[in-house]
Amino acid sequence: MKQNVLVSFNANSKQREIIENSLKEKANIKYIENETERSDAIKEADIIFSWNPIREFNEEEFYFMERVKLMQLLSAGADHLPFDKFPESLAVAGNVGAYAQAMAEHALAMALSLSKNLFVNHQKIKEGIFDQSSKGKLLHGANYGIIGFGGIGKEIYNLLQPFEPNIYAINTSGKTDYNVSFIGTIKDLEFVLTNSDFIFITIPLSKATKNLIGKAQFELMKKDAILVNVARGEIINQKDFYEHLLNNPDFKAGIDAWWIEPFRHGEFKVEFPFIELPNVIGSPHNSGMVPGAMTRATEFAVKNILSFIDGKEVRGVFNREDYLW
């Protein structure tokens, strides 16, 4: 018997082609914008393929999802989801690994730019200042802390290999098959922060990781450490982050993930002027956006939906208790 799949985001023609070609033999596919009776389409769905549920459904419609067994996200994270409004029988799966390669490249690009003072020296050149004595930071043989050794963290690991790095990694299990100098869990955060020249934040935002890094953690870091965050802004305490950057000019940061962003909050806003600091470079949380990104993300997500239909293991299912704030 075919499953009823409801696509709740505005899929483009290429995405629809992927969905139709992959699922048509095993599923009845509906697109919510085509449905005049939205409530009936939701009530009849076995699977919902969503990008941002809080924008695609109103609050009442969450209560129509009693039949839905899987919500597959096009996005990777789950911190923006209203788990308290979902039926307990509904499993939510993130699009694990779909954006990892592009995000890892972006994170490394930020680290490289900061380590060589490229942005600061570019500005000096524009002003006619030829500061040939400006020193960069050596990446070869450095210690790299990867806070979140999942899909993105492992791609960063792969990109770093030509630099013969020492990798200090943190994941949920404290185990890995990768050749790292250290592997631990969040309980080992102090050790990793203390020993790292470069720190990459790639861990999901949850109850356990909100404000994971604040004043006490910054004080553990090396004075000239470089921190790059491509995960979520709220993992780092915003006030403590700004004050540390302001008071420690040799400490540098690349910020791709911000505290208030349009996708999750409807606007972009910061409480402190990070971008005015010479030891910061920022980007608009676009680390995963490269040509073909959404096509690949759709392919990743549809494969997970097929796994669910076929009774196979579904990747990236969230533990809702981690997100009931």
Explain what the structure shows.
There is one protein chain. The chain has 325 residues and is an alpha/beta fold. The chain is built from 11 helices and 12 strands. It has helices at residues 13-23, 38-44, 53-56, 100-115, 118-126, 151-160, 189-195, 215-220, 238-247, 262-265, 293-309; strands at residues 3-7, 27-31, 47-50, 70-73, 91-93, 143-147, 166-170, 182-184, 198-201, 226-229, 252-255, 280-282. Helix 1 (13-23) packs parallel to helix 11 (293-309) and helix 4 crosses helix 6. It starts with a strand and ends in a 16-residue tail after the last helix. The mean pLDDT is 94.
Q: Which topology of the largest domain does CATH recognise?
A: Rossmann fold
Treating each run of at least 4 consecutive H or I residues as one helix, how many helices? 11
The percentage helix is 25-40%
Mean pLDDT metric? 94
Query: How many beta-strand segments?
Result: 12
Given as residue ranges, the uncertain stretches (5+ residues, pLDDT < 50) are none
Instruction: Give the CATH level 1 class of the largest domain.
Output: Alpha Beta
First and last CA, distance:
38 Å
> Can you tell me the CATH architecture of the largest domain?
3-Layer(aba) Sandwich
Identify the overall geometry.
elongated
Structural class determined from secondary elements: alpha/beta
Q: CATH-wise, what's the superfamily of the largest domain? A: NAD(P)-binding Rossmann-like Domain
Radius of gyration: 21 Å
SS strand fraction: 15-25%
Q: Reading side by side through the largest sheet, how are the strands ordered?
A: 8-7-6-9-10-11-12
Largest sheet: 7 strands, parallel
